[in-house]
Amino acid sequence: MTFARYMQLCLYHPEYGYYMQEPERTGVAGDYFTSADLHPVFARLVARQAAEIWDFLDRPQRFTWVEMGAGRGLFARDFLNWTVKAWPDFHAALDYVAVEPAPRRRQRLLEVAASDKLRAIESLEELEPVTGCVFSNELVDAFPVSVVTRSGGKLKEVYVTVEGGTLREKLGPLSDSAVAAAVARYANQLEEGHRVEVCLAAARWIRSAAEKLARGFVITIDYGDLAARLYSKERPRGTLLAYHRHTASEDFFAAPGQRDLTAHVNFSALMDAGREAGLEFLGFTTQEKFLMALGEQSQFSELYEPGQTEVERLQARLNLKRLIFPGEMEGPAGMGTIFKVLIQHRDASAPQLTGLKFATP
């Protein structure tokens, strides 16, 4: 089978898929951290941007915030708890939709977030056209990817086979003309022996999001980059990694369904697919600049809770540093530059959002 099919099964098989099982996947007990795991300030600052978007859309009586891949419900909990205090009028208009494919996780996130504003669905297909925002944080990196290399001067795709009872990779012809088209469009200088990933599912997802958005925004936060920087000679093996207990490796065939498989997001492809689906590009920036812009006016007052000790306040500041400081992946330096923020919109008169204040034109 193609590597993309193998990755799809490893992550989303109804019974054995990594994201469909009960064990914690994020946080200290999991395999990696997300921004929402580190501190509520992440959701609170995004909520500030959401409230501003509501204003730009002329304060509709019903504003639907769609969180894709809602996971444990930590972001939803922090977002809803903050908006009810900080922007009660905005909170009153909120219709919070959490999209989560795993049934047990849907039930759990409803319990964690515990709000009458929240509803959970399995997929975007269940959603009616909405006015509001489709939001995702570390969603697209978990979509299955095709792996392409140049071998003997020709493009080859990586397949997964069994030899001697062991899973192994084997090169074969490109399985889909769309894979070939993506390589030609974004990685046409692929050198002999080098590898790139092609995520056809990302384009399908952004088209689905566009179809469900009558008016509003799509905010995509993930690690990755524009194609020109992503597909470079500095990444001869591509960006595909397996994560287990906060350790990255290229052992993709060990314990299928028990490790996270992930690849950097090609934001150029998301921009192009969004435009073809009717979404207009608004801005692209780093998580560092996005959060700094949103926290500037309040001087990050969202960081603290009443009655905190100085030690607790210090820990909060350290978590904020990890969210905004430059770094690679989830290393100790921080998430600020490896994570990017893409904002697209439909029928919203190209507003100037605060989160894009420091974005490089």
Q: Which stretches of 5+ consecutive residues score pLDDT under 50? A: 329-333
Structural class of the helix and strand makeup? Answer: alpha/beta
Q: Helical stretch count?
A: 12
Quote the distance from N terminus to C terminus. Answer: 42 Å
Task: Draw up the topology in text.
Layout (H helix, E strand, L loop, with lengths): L2 H10 L22 H4 L2 H16 L6 E6 L5 H13 L1 H6 E6 L3 H11 L4 E4 L8 E8 L8 E6 L2 E10 L2 E7 L4 H10 L8 E4 L1 H13 E13 L1 H4 L10 E4 L2 E3 L10 E3 L2 E2 H10 L3 E7 H10 L13 H15 L14 E8 L15
Parallel strand pairs: 1-2, 1-4, 2-3, 4-9, 9-13
Antiparallel strand pairs: 5-6, 5-8, 6-7, 9-15, 10-11, 10-12, 14-15
Helix pairs in contact: 3-4, 8-10
Structural overview:
It is a single chain. This protein has a single domain, classed as Rossmann fold (3-Layer(aba) Sandwich), CATH 3.40.50.12710. Strands 1, 2, 3, 4, 9, 13, 14 and 15 form an 8-stranded mixed beta sheet that branches. Strand 10 and strand 11 form a beta hairpin. By secondary structure, the protein is of the alpha/beta class. It has 12 helices and 15 strands. It has helices at residues 3-12, 35-38, 41-56, 74-86, 88-93, 103-113, 177-186, 200-212, 227-230, 267-276, 287-296, 310-324, and strands spanning 63-68, 94-99, 118-121, 130-137, 146-151, 154-163, 166-172, 195-198, 213-225, 241-244, 247-249, 260-262, 265-266, 280-286, 339-346. It is globular and about 60 Å long.
